[in-house]
Amino acid sequence: MVSERLFHRRALWSLRLICLLALLVAGRAFAADTAPGPGPTMRFVIVRSNAPGCEPICPEWISAEGSIEAGTPALFKRMLKTLGGRSLPIVVDSPGGNVEAALALGRLIRKNMLDIAIGKTVFSGCRPDADGCHDRNKIGAPYLGDIVDYGAMCNSACPLMFAGGVRRVVGEWAFLGVHQITTTYIRTKLQYRTTYRIVGGKKKVLNTRIVSRKDAGSYKTYEMSKAVEKRLAAYLDEMGIDQGVLETMKSTPASEIHQIALGDMLTMKLVTSMDAADLLTAAGLCRSDRLAANCLEIPGKKPDGLTTAAKPAPLPAEPEGVQRDEDMRFVVVRGGNPLRNPDCPEWISAEGAITPQTPQKLRQLLATLGDRRLPVVISSKGGDLLGALAAGRLVREKKLDVAVGRTDFVGCDPGEWNCLAKEGALCRVEHRCGSGVRFGLCAHACRRGETACRSPCAA
User: Fold this and answer.
1) Which element (helix H / strand E) includes 197?
2) Side-chain half-sphere of 2: how many Cα atoms within 13 Å?
3) Among residues 219, 224, 227, which one has the least CA distance to residue 253?
4) Cβ count near 338 (within 10 Å)
5) Are strands 376-379 and 344-351 parallel, antiparallel or unpaired?
6) Cβ distance 66 to 41 under 8 Å?
7) How open is the CA angle 48-52-56, to the nearest 5 degrees?
8) How many CA atoms lie within 13 A of 262 on its CB side?
9) Under 8 Å between Cβ of 117 and 92
10) Bond from prior residue into 303 cis (ω within 30 degrees of 0)
11) C-alpha–C-alpha distance, residues 2 and 10, integer Å
């Protein structure tokens, strides 16, 4: 009897029961959009300015374009490691995406003391999405391009990333918009196995292991919870941004986008100035007297990618009066006449097709003039409507005069890489109005005391 009782007791101690249970679990994803954002995932590439004449010292920046997803901060960290401590501004164009990732990106940007601007990178030649071009970053060769703010955006979760910049700028034709956060709750049916033994008449759990997962649907809420609101308020305060941004987010339905006006951005401290992206990327930042942190010298490199061993191809001759079909070029020009009058006028020659980049190029040139106001002599077949509107607003803002005419350059064409300006302007030119060449423009203008005059002109 005793042995039999011991046998049963041992049997109870060693008994293991296996049960299968089903549990319905509700998980929450904190994101502006839990599904992948519209368009491709954000990619980061180093871009070098292809502005005429900037080589061998040109500005560089990080182009960040695409939707923000959970893995985007890791990609950005990888990009920062390739810079070796260099501080490059970020030019972003994004429809938004994952809020958690946007917060992480903003903190990474602030930690590395980087500036940020909203803009599109217009690549020249090799593009990141082209075959054979996607590995340029890996070999340390930057892409070439220019910046435009026309049509660029930073919406939804992107402004949270944007808030991390030390200097934050948005051009007048770029968009920054916010809306209410969408929180998605995901239901998952978990089936798990629990193994336990009976000890003294009580169950003792040995282990629990999930054996299957099944999607059980999801639902969304379009109101910000108190916990989320508190987190975002703390983040904006950390970045020095006014809480008005958060209030605008809360008051805008998730199905809409509230585009914040540039003046309101300044009031909310979302931008640090009323400048555009060229504040961070203009070729003028790399002058020898003031070299910005994002300027990089490539010894022996000449404009348009020519090396010291290469020779520029000769420009084909053009018939008299033929307008070249190229992007509009802005050049400061100084008048010349046979009498060698030292008091020659200057003007801005604007020739070529109007593109979305045209306002940016004009703004860059005007920045080099300081407070001087030169008239604009324009010859163009037309082009992009919004680009023309932006350029027109800039001309009116700077209170510049405009005339229709063509500038005939004597000696060298400013499009040639070795045609350098003297004393800030190209001399020995003729100003053509209609079919006549007026050499007397210089003396006539200076007699009237116009601000376009400057003395002396180098012979």
Assistant:
1) strand 183-199
2) 0
3) 224
4) 6
5) parallel
6) yes
7) 60
8) 13
9) yes
10) no
11) 12
What is the rounded CA–CA span in Å between residue 81 and residue 346?
47
Tokens 């490059």 correspond to what residue?
88
Give the model's pLDDT for residue 15: 36
Q: According to the model, what pLDDT value does residue 219 have?
A: 56
- Separation CA 166–CA 108 (nearest Å): 11
User: Residue range 162-183: average pLDDT?
Assistant: 91
> What angle do the packed helices 385-397 and 358-369 form, to 10 degrees?
20
Residue 251, amino acid? S
Q: What is the pLDDT of residues 112-170, one digit of tens each?
A: 999 999 999 999 888 888 777 766 665 556 799 999 988 899 999 999 999 999 999 99
DSSP character string of 146-167: EEE-TT-EEETTHHHHHTT-SS
Q: What distance in Å separates the CA atoms of residue 147 and residue 123, rounded to the nearest whole number? A: 9
* Res 337: pLDDT: 56
Q: What is the DSSP letter of 327?
A: B
pLDDT of residue 18 exceeding 50? no
pTM greater than 0.85 (yes/no): no
pLDDT in tens, 132-143: 776 666 555 679
Question: In three state form, how does the secondary structure of 351-410 look?
Answer: ECEECCCHHHHHHHHHHHHCCCCCCEEEECCCECHHHHHHHHHHHHHCCCCEEECEEEEC
Neighbours of 372 (CB within 10 A): 14
